[in-house]
Structures are given as structure tokens and as C-alpha cells.
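Preliminary data (for renewal application), magnesium ion complex.
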Amino acid sequence: MLTIAPKGTKDVLPDEVYKWHYVERAFADICERYGFREIRTPDFEHTELFKRGVGDTTDIVQKEMYTWEQAKRSLTLRPEGTSPVVRAFVEHKLYAEAQPSKYYYNIPCFRYEKPQSGRLRAFHQFGIEVFGTNNMMADAEVIALGHDFLQEMGITDIELRINSIGCPNCRSKYREVLKDFLRPKYDCLCDTCKSRFDRNPMRILDCKSPEDQELVKDAPKMLDHLCDECREAFEELKADLDAMGIPYVVDPGIVRGLDYYTKTAFEFVTTAIGAQGTVCGGGRYDHLSEELGGPPIPGVGFGLGIERLLITMEASGKEIPKPAGADAFIVVMGDAARKEGLALMRKLRGEGLKVEMDDMGRNVKNQFKYADRTGATSAIVIGDTEIEQQVVSLKDMESGEQVTIPMDEIVSALMERRGQ
Ligand code: ATP
Ligand code: MG
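Predicted structure:
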């Protein structure tokens, strides 16, 4: 128990962390290129934020939150990224800056779910949000960033599915149509969905139970009940995606698992990794800020699961470059050489080189063996003779070739090797 991590959590070990570094750098890089700036919010918030933001008839709020009470305050580990970013935006009055505001983040999220491949209890998301514009061009740009990032990550077997889930205006009418459809099936719905029937019947469309999914298969679609404004917005979105050459399919079945969405809803889905195929999901949320007590601030964004991204990249055969070993491993013979080696190691590190030395008291043969195992490119050999003559032997670990060079030429020699 003490040496086993909790169910649904995963360690990232040093041997695989380079993959995380790779996608994290690539994501930050594309976001900066597209004019987004990073925002960091705390890992927990007042519980009320998620109840109001995500919606209290959603799976997340009803079943999945890690909530505890401390000093009479109810707090919750962040299950998703958008509500905290909207909270921060309102709290710090960032709407006073030039609009729109474009943010990105890289966050841990926590949901008490049934763990499976690609579904964890502690997982990670990349996300972006654009605040302050109603224009569908922002939706198209958000989708384009997701598309371009997935392309850059070598994922080809992925489909963009888009839908419109309307606005409070058309949705309230649609709800009645949907309730009329669901009423005769009410008794067969799962208990959670029964409780949603009056409060939020659209949630029933997103129920994960296979029986309920079968029951709602032929339900009327929001897309057929949009008001003029929402229909026009959807046409604009499609036209902008066409203009950017981004392929999509219209999927009237996309509802999304969070209540705050309005108009645009989209998912990037892959068939390469089995059931948990939604790598990225997002949409527009024009009333979230008001729902949280802030001013009216339209927004649009997405969340992209990093674990699912990595599994998909692996399934797509994407090769992530492994980090290089040390530029040099300093092999020493005797205590005087060890001291000389320590000074040299600090000097070379100060020059920006990656340099290592044995600190287990190994003999020369085992120092070489260890240098080889850790993937060092070169070995620098120092013994009494070398100290006397102020030279070192520089050995290419791959070819085995060895040359003697003056101490003060080591930096340039190593730099040259690195450049090759
Ligand atoms: P799903 O329908 O698969 O449960 P969701 O609609 O709950 O997904 P969002 O809340 O939109 O997902 O989160 C955005 C992305 O975060 C998902 O597309 C997925 O890649 C990732 N994600 C969500 N839940 C988990 C989880 N429990 N473990 C790992 N990744 C997750
Ligand atoms: Mg979910």
C-alpha cells in the first residue's frame, strides 16, 4: 500500500519524461506563435465555482469531483480548466485589457472516474481560451490551433467533429421537444438521467450508459432547432474552416460533458486508441462569466488530454527524439585526477556543456562502462601523466577513437562534437 500509487494515477518516470517535455514545449510554442499567453491558476478552487460553472447536473459535478472541507470552506481539486481561468479573468479584471484575451495552460485535472486506458483520476490537459469576442472567427482559430497542433504531433488518423448546441433562446424550445421525445421512455432511463429530465434533459444525450444511449439514438437534434442567429453563426464557422482548409464533419450528436457550452461544440476524435478516442474537446461558452457573477464575457476554447495525446502519438508511430546523453563523462585515475576532474567538470558545465563524473568510487573500467550505459558521447580521461602535461585524452564513445588534446581546447572540441 505504501509503495503503490492510488488507483487512476500514473507516475511519469525519467525514462519517458522526455515525451512530456516534447509535447509541452511544442504546445507552448504553437500557442505563443498564435498569440496566446500562458495563465496559471491554483490546483483547487471553491467548490461552488465548478458547481455553477460546469453545472450541477453534469457527471463531473454529480459524481467525479474531489471535494473536501477545510476551515468551513468547501474546496475542490480542479476537474477542468475553463472555469478557473474565467474566474481569474473576472477577479483580476483582465477584461480591461485590449480584447480579445488569448490564454493557454498546461494543468493537472482530477476526476473520480472508472480508470481505463486513457481515463485516469489524475490526468493532464493542455487548454486554450479566447475571451471577449462573439465573432465565429475566434471559434475557427481555436479549432485551427487544435488541428495544427495535432498535425505537428504527427497525428493523422483523427477526425474533427463539429456541432452547434444553440443558445439559451433556442435551447429552451428544443428542451421541450426533447422532453416530449423522452417522456414515453422515462421509466427506462438510468436514475441519474431521470433526475436530469426536468432540470437538464440535454444532459441525457451525453449519458455514458449504453442502454440510455440506445434510447436517445433517434432523439431530435439541437442542430435542427437552432434560432436564426445560431444557425448563421454555425454557417460562418463552417465557411471559415473551409477557408482555412480544415476538414470537418458535422456531428449533431456532440453535446459535451459541461453545461456552459453555447453554439459551437467540437471534438477531435481518433479511432487509433480504442474507446477513449476524444483527444480534444471544446466549444463556445458565452454565459459562463455571468453565471459566475461576472460581467458578460463571451469565450471559446478547448481542453486536450495529454495522456490521450501521448497514447495517440504512439499509436500513430510518431517518433519523439530521445534526449542526447552527456557531452562528456570524465574518467579519472587516482585522487589527484579526481580533484582535477571536479574542477574541470564545473568549468565545462559553466560553459553550458552536459558533463558527468562517477561519484561511486568506481575503477576506470567501470567508469567507462557506466559512461557507456548513460549514453555519454565522449569520455575525457585524466591521470597523473595528463595532469603533468596539462592535456586530456578525449575518447569518442561511439567509434572508440581517442586523441590527446591540451586542457584549454576541451571546450571547443566538445562544442564541435555536439554540432555534428
Ligand atoms: P470523455 O467524454 O472522454 O469523458 P470529456 O467530455 O469528459 O471526455 P473534457 O471535459 O472535454 O472531456 O476534457 C477534455 C479532454 O481531456 C478530453 O478530450 C480528454 O482528452 C481529456 N480527459 C477528460 N477526462 C479524462 C480522464 N479522466 N483521463 C484522461 N484524460 C481525460
Ligand atoms: Mg468525461
